[in-house]
Amino acid sequence: MIIFVDTLFDADLSVVRRSDADGILWAKEVEDYQRFGVIVTDERGYMTRIVEKPSTPISKLANIGLYYIKDWEDAVRGHHRRDARGAGEGR
Known about the structure:
By secondary structure, the protein is an alpha+beta fold. Helices cover 19% and strands 32% of the residues. Strands 1-5-2 form a three-stranded antiparallel sheet, with no helix packed on it.
C-alpha cells in the first residue's frame, strides 16, 4: 500500500483480497476537480491517465493518494530505473 501523508480516507480495503488486479487506485468523485489530480478512465472504468489540476473538465474522479501495488518489488525497481534516467516527476 502507498498512502500519501496528507490523505484521510474512508475506503473499503478488503477489495485488495477480492481482486486479481495488479494494482488498485482509490478515487473520490468531487465537484471542484481543479484542486486535485484527477483520474481519466476508459469505458471499462480502468485508469488511462492522471491529469494534475486540470483547467478544463476532464474528470471529477479525484486521486485521493491511496494505492495498492501487487508486485511492489517490481515497482520499486522500476522507480529506481526511472530516477537513473533523470525522468522523475516535475522534470
